[in-house]
Amino acid sequence: MEKYIINGGNKLYGGVKIQTAKNSVLPILAAAVLTDEKVRIKNAPCISDVKNMVRILGSLGCRAAYEGDDIVIDSSAADCHEVPRTLAHELRSSVFLLGPLIARFGRAKIAYPGGCDIGLRPVDLHLNGLKRLGVKIRESNGYILCECPGLRGNEIMLDCPSVGATENIMLAAVRAEGETVIKNAAREPEIEDLQKFLNSMGCKVRGAGSGTIAVQGTAAKLRGGDYQPMADRIEAGTFLIAAAMCGGEIVAEGISGENISSLLHKLRENGCKIHTKNDKIILKRDGPLISVKSIETQPYPGFPTDLQAQMTALCCICRGQSIVTENLFETRFKYVPELCKMGADITVAGRNAFVRGREKFNGATVVACDLRGGAALVLAALAAEGRSEVLDISHTDRGYGMFEYKLRSLGADIVRAAV
Ligand code: EPZ
Questions:
Q1: Are 344 and 309 in contact (CB under 8 A)?
Q2: Distance between terminal CA atoms of the chain?
Q3: How far is CA 221 from each of CA 77, 99, 104, 218, rounded to the nearest angstrom?
Q4: Which of 4, 27, 80, 349 is a plausible cystine mate for 390, CB 3.0–4.6 Å?
Q5: Radius of gyration of the chain measured on its C-alpha atoms
Q6: 191 lines ligand 1 (CB under 6 A)
């Protein structure tokens, strides 16, 4: 196990290049199973969720590996429709493979997925959507078993705009006979990126980003090719919140402010000066941090649940009180007791966290329990007075490539060490 040792109190200055989006690369890796031609994903982030997805593709018989900064996938020799429990438990995105495996092999067998422990995370919307395309599904001793000799297009209404269910259905529907219409689809920018990638392969998908996506199935041979996925709006938001908490002035490079406008709106209310120019977001904070009354996570374009923990950490050192409401996941406040060890004053009741702002955090030893909660602890330690240790940073390694290097380049005093 590894940890971060952080001496807090430094302001952050300088530029930080934003990585390619984890939550865009993961479904695109699954989509690569649909073609026998080589796919090159440009500038893929070097993070454990992506490395694990590459390992899963390898277990299916694909040749998949990093080549420099890129990941090259050749699925021509893929011969296995089963994702073993050991790998499926590593990450939630293993479930995205149901669609492409059924599309390619007519069947799929995947153990229930793992991922961050932030809620129940059922997959009923994925399975109901696939059933609407003609897939026969049974579940036995922790495995999901799917059979479908021929996918048929259909209309699917999602009970909630699930990102993963939307993507999984898209990945099966591209090989269904006829048209599939997904209603109440998730509208995240990563869905638009997946649509762009699928269409670059020769698929016919339209409407991503709106609530309704139409997929015209095709039996045609699909192309491979090079693809540069979008930038990681959650990584960018994490660095912007870090600068807001520590003070200073940073430039997030290679990111569109459009994709995190809900965050920028809140940070301006907190007293940050922000402006966006082409693919840069500049944030400056040199005055007091002012609390925002409420933060409510919502599906896109609402405030992103993946920035909830980081924003709660910011609220802890603002003047005033805030209420943070987590509407998407049932237990996404597990990091709160660790923040309280650093002096935060937070009371959690159901989906709400009531935050009373304090002057500062005090350094402490804390333990990360999930990806974004772990990032929130790092940000609190960077802003704290004194020395902190953040343990079990395998959680932050899942989604933040070169995290300590990037933070150090901005002036943070942070090192990685073995426990
Ligand atoms: C994706 O997870 C992201 N992961 C998550 O990011 C993100 O928090 C989430 O979307 C919401 O934006 C990836 O893209 C790899 P959902 P996903 O299905 O697809 C319920 C991170 O930190 N639901 O949109 O699992 C579910 O319980 C990760 O990078 C069902 O009820 O999220 C939740 O309440 C964490 N049945 C809500 O929908 C289903 O079948 C949203 O979940 C599926 C979901």
A1: no
A2: 6
A3: 15, 17, 12, 8
A4: 4
A5: 21
A6: no
Mutate to test the pocket of ligand 1, among 93, 162, 306 (most ligand atoms within 8 A of CB): 162
Task: Quote the CA–CA distance of 14 and 10 in Å, as a whole number.
Answer: 13
Which residue's CA is the nearest one to ligand 1's atom 8? 306
Q: Alpha helices, DSSP H only, in 332-398?
A: 336-341, 371-383, 394-397
Tokens of 245: 């908490």
- Nearest-CA neighbor of 143 among 79, 80, 88? 88
- Determine the pLDDT at residue 90: 75
- Region 335-349: mean pLDDT is 98
Q: Report whether residue 119 contacts ligand 1, using a CB cutoff of 6 Å.
A: yes
Lowest mean pLDDT among 117-126, 161-170, 321-330: 117-126
Cis check: omega of the bond before 301, within 30 degrees of 0: yes
Residue 86 phi, psi (nearest 5): -55, -40
- Whole-number Å distance, alpha carbon 92 to ligand 1 midpoint, is 9
Distance 164 CA to ligand 1 centre (A): 6
**CB 26 near ligand 1, within 6 Å:** yes
Which amino acid would we find at residue 198?
A: L
What is the per-residue pLDDT for 87? 82
Ligand 1 pocket, residue 308 CB under 6 Å: no
Average pLDDT rounded to a whole number, residues 251-277: 97
Q: Given the CA of residue 23, which atom of ligand 1 is nearest to it?
A: 14
- Residue 104 confidence (pLDDT): 96
- Residue 149 is predicted with a pLDDT of 84
**In the annotation, is 369 catalytic?**
no
pLDDT > 90? residue 88:
no
Cα distances (Å, whole numbers) of residue 148 to 16, 78, 81: 46, 18, 12
State the average pLDDT over residues 394-417. 98
- Enter the tokens of residue 310: 């980081």
Q: How many degrees, rounded to 5, is the angle at CA 233 between CA 229 and CA 235?
A: 105
Return the residue whose CA atom lies nearest to atom 22 of ligand 1. Answer: 306
| 390/256 Cα distance (integer angstroms) | 30
Q: Is the pLDDT of residue 235 over 70?
A: yes
Asked whether 23 lines ligand 1 (CB < 6 A), one says: yes
Place of tokens 């923040």: 339
